[in-house]
Amino acid sequence: MPETRHLTPPAGTTPRGRGWLPHGFHLGTHSHTEGQLVYAAAGALATTTERGTWVAPANRVTWTPPGFDHSHRFYGRTDTRLVAIPVELCGGLVAHPAVFAVSPLLREALLALTDRRDVRPGADDRLRAVVIDELADPPEQSLHLPEPRDDRLRAVTDLLHADPARTTTLAELGRAAGASERTLSRLFQTELGMSFHRWRTILRVHHALVRLTAGWSVTDTATECGWSNPSSFIDAFTEVVGQTPGRYQAGLRER
């Protein structure tokens, strides 16, 4: 892995504009007085809050409302676009961190907002209104990986974070965490809103996105992230991300 760089912006400031960030770049925990959209026009990013982690490849954009502590990590050489949303306009978006699908119109509006400054009076305001309109649909939940508060459940998820490819059953993980399979199964549903299998699948897809962005082959990514064969990986990836791994990598080359 390349060296990870850290940057924590001054409290109360909102970075704007665009910039290329290296693989592994980490923007430390911070918050903003305004809302913020972060879009990877190339590469991918992960946004982490106390509610969990959202991964955003180039067909997603992350949203963080004002006042939420969060951090970002970038994967692949990332063309990063930052768009601030003034507080008075944040009521038009969900009141919690989220990730949204990026339509062709939304992509072009985000690029235009970050490629140049106001070319005509009010032009940026009109583009920002288009962005907010495009984000009116419900946020995309498939790439959200929630994190637990229960110590037993956190012990299990920590083991999986350390090795997403491990095939250990929930019962075996429970013995390591000091909890029964039944208790852990209930906690996954009540705390995280999904089954153990679903949570582990999304974790593996997060890791797969990082590897695909870095240029790994579909077959090698499937093996490294815990799938028994490329076909099952392709099916799971497509269900979560909305496109095949091959199509995702082709899209990276096209941008």
UniProtKB/TrEMBL annotation:
Residues 1-21 are annotated as: Disordered. One of its GO terms (molecular function) is DNA-binding transcription factor activity. InterPro entries: Homeodomain-like_sf, HTH_AraC, RmlC-like_jellyroll, RmlC_Cupin_sf. Residues 154-251 form the HTH araC/xylS-type domain. The keyword Iron does not apply. It comes from the Bacteria. Keywords: DNA-binding, Repressor, Transcription, Transcription regulation. PANTHER family: HTH-TYPE TRANSCRIPTIONAL REGULATOR NIMR (PTHR11019). This is HTH-type transcriptional regulator RipA.
